[in-house]
Every structure is written in structure tokens, then in C-alpha cells.
Predict the 3D structure of the following.
Amino acid sequence: MSRSAHPAGPRHADVLPEGHYAAPPADLNQLDPRVWSRTVGRNADGVATVGGIDVKTLAEEFGTPGYFLDEADFRARCRAWREAFKGEKGGKGEGEDADVFYAGKAFLSRAVVRWLTEEGLNLDVCSAGELATALAAGMPAERIALHGNNKSTGEIERAVEAGVGRIVLDSFQEIARVAHIAQRLGKRQRVQIRITVGVEAHTHEFIATAHEDQKFGIPLAGGLAAEAVRRALKLDGLELIGIHSHIGSQIFDTSGFEVAAHRVVGLLGEIRDEHGVELPEIDLGGGLGIAYTSEDDPREPHEIAKALRDIVHRECDAAGLAVPRLSVEPGRAIVGPTAFTLYEVGTVKELPGLRTYVSVDGGMSDNIRTALYDAEYSVALVSRASTAEPMLSRVVGKHCESGDIVVRDAFLPADLAPGDLIAVPATGAYCRSMASNYNHALRPPVVAVRDGQAREIVRRETEEDLLRLDVG
Ligand code: LLP
């Protein structure tokens, strides 16, 4: 089929997908600010820029594929979350401070830790590696929370020794283990207990975490959470500061949090009645959604903060409890929108009547989310503007697997050619942190761009890096 086979409309119109790509966008050159980071735009030549640098220059200097992170946007998002949780003027909880713990699993590096420290955020880590990164970059230990459903003795010892601000307990065994380690080290460790409140979050099964039949947390049902509290309160090595709930990820409405807060506060009421103790803190976890495509419409931090505060105040008023200090743990909502992945187009394979497969120089090794969660992404030609007609495309990687899809359905201009640069926005969260060496791919660098300066904060892997681990 020739490239002009459908002069009046998008090519392959007979196989148009459902959902956000049911029709091509009016202007393929437009970079929707909902999905691209704040400083992204196009220069007079039509080349996309971030932080004042164009993507062709970035590709020349750092190569492709690469993650390009908009540092100003990252910092602005940290500040927005921090400000929002300081308490709205005139709103419920005005002036009441709350803590924002950035969830390091979304993406962590020493530079990120320094930005968080400077912007007044705390940090949630869930492994020895994340803890080591946080401490190496100077995050004060009291601002760190340790998570995980199977923390090793070594991880617990390291965290207690370092003096982390809290350990979030996830099982009965761990309650005993942390108490024992803390006592042995002559410390009293501040802890929270993570409970599952039985909420069905409206998200992919693999990233929903508040229903009972899963590995995280201690169920509220059957009195298990109450029993966990009973045990923790008895142990000298532990200072129980609160209850934790995380209901899942990529959630857009606050109704799930409403149910979670209702049940968490209900437990606080039971604890007061049984033990005469009002626990001073609650943590409602992370999970706030971001825009991966123009169809997604996430809430702003101040709207989320207001909604959560209102819920907690209402529930506490009803239960006759003093309002506990609130904390939240956004990961994706802070880092997700701040980066895009830049790829070079290789093969462009048109399958007549179906779609065009656009192969890039990365794939499931730098973004597993499409294969793993059916995640939707957007994509744009960024090394030039184009007035060609829209072409229904599937952006695929170079791995030996047909499920190696980066963007399942997208419109790209029909004049797309090998050597063009395309970029996938909103890849700041869970892409580099879940990257693999499948097919011995070298994991791409993360380049921070700000005010006309670009620098690698995580360098590209080399063949030497790969071979260093292969001891022969
Ligand atoms: N707090 C806890 C206890 C968590 O388990 C998580 C995420 C977060 C906070 C941060 O959630 P966020 O705000 O980033 O959604 N790999 C999946 C996401 C797994 C999230 C695991 N826990 C993905 O790519 O969507």
C-alpha cells in the first residue's frame, strides 16, 4: 500500500483501536502539557526542547535510548506536594503540618535524594539498596521510612542502626523481629502497622494493594490488625506511632481513600477504647494517578490534600478523636510526569491493512509497564515537526519477544523514517527503576536537564558493566 492510500484520513482507519487513540489528534506536532513535563516545548525549527535544550543535541551528547528528566518540574512537584500538605488556608486543618514521603521505588538516585532533601520531603524506601542510596546522599535518617513485606534481618538492623524515622510493620513475625532487633541494639524503634482495609482499588490487579487476598499488610478483617496493635503495644523495643494503609497505584478518584480513612480511623477509635491510647499518626500511602495520555485527568496535589484532610477530619470528629498527623507517599505523581524516554527510530514496517510497526532502539528492557500492566502511553516525533497524515502505529522494541511493545496504539506522522527521534512522555516512574538487561541490553542513562544544562545522574551501562558481573 502506498503512503497516500488514505489521503483523506488516517491510514489503517479500518483497524482503529478503541479508547484514547480511536481518532488521531488534531495536530500531531502538539505536545500536550498534561502528559509532557513543564519545560517541554518545540523550538522555531519544530524540534522538541526540555529545560532549554533541544532533543537532537541531547541525543548527540547522551545517545539513545535515554530518560531525560526535567529537574525544574521535579522540584516544582515536590514543592506543590509539600505546600499542599502544610494545610490549606481557611480549610480543614489549616496550618496543620503533614509529611510527604516520596516513594523511592518509582525512581531513586543520589541526585533525586538531594533534591528531596532540599525541597523538604521525606523518603519511603523498601530495600537495603534504596536505604543505602538515601543515606549515601545525605537524607537524614529520621526522614526515612522503611517498607517491605519481607524485610531481612540485615535490612532491619541497618535501618534501626541508622535511626530511620519509622519502620512500617507488615506481619506478626516482623513485629516480633523488629522489637527484638531494636532491643538488642538498645533502641526503641518508631513503627507503624500496615493494614489492609478491604478496599477494591480501581486499577490493574497487580498494583492494587488494599484487598485482603494479597501479600501486603495485616487485614483489618477478623480482628487481625487489632491483634497486631495489641502485640506491638506490649513490646519495649517498639514505639507504635500509627497505622498505615496503601490502597494501590494509578488511582484517580479519592473514594478509595475515603473508605480507607474511615476504616483506619475506626481502628484508631478501637485502640483508644481498648488501650486508652490515641495513636498520633496515620499514613494513607501513595497511588495517585498521572496522565499517560490526553484522556487522563489527574487531580492536583492541593485538591488531593484538601480531600484527604477533609475525610480525616470528618472521620475523627465522628469518632471523637484528636486529628492525627497525616502522611502520604506519592511516587509516580511526583516523578512520573517529569521524564520522557527518547528513542531513535530504526525499522518502520508497514503491514498493509493492519498498522505500521515502528521499532526503536530500546523496548521492554527500559519500559516493562506496557507488557506487564497493559499500560497506555503517548508518543510523538520530536526531532522535527511534520505535516504528514497520521499513521496508525505500534511502537515496539528490539527484544526477542512479540510482547515487546512500548506504545500499543499511537498515531505518528506517515513520513516517519529511520533516524527520526521519537519520545514517550511520562516515563519518570517505574521505568528506569524496573529496567532490565534482557537480551543483554545496556540500561539507559537518566539525564537531568535544567536551565540549559544537562548531566547524567545515572550513567548509561556499558558492556564493561555487563561483563564485570560475569565472572567467567
Ligand atoms: N507507598 C507504598 C507502601 C507503596 O507500596 C507504593 C507503591 C507507594 C507508596 C507509591 O505508589 P505510587 O504513588 O508511586 O503509585 N510498578 C508499578 C507500581 C507499583 C507500586 C508499588 N508500590 C507500576 O509501574 O505501575
In short: Residues 103, 105-106, 124, 147, 207, 246, 249-250, 285-288, 329-333, 369, 373, 429-430 surround LLP (CB under 6 Å).
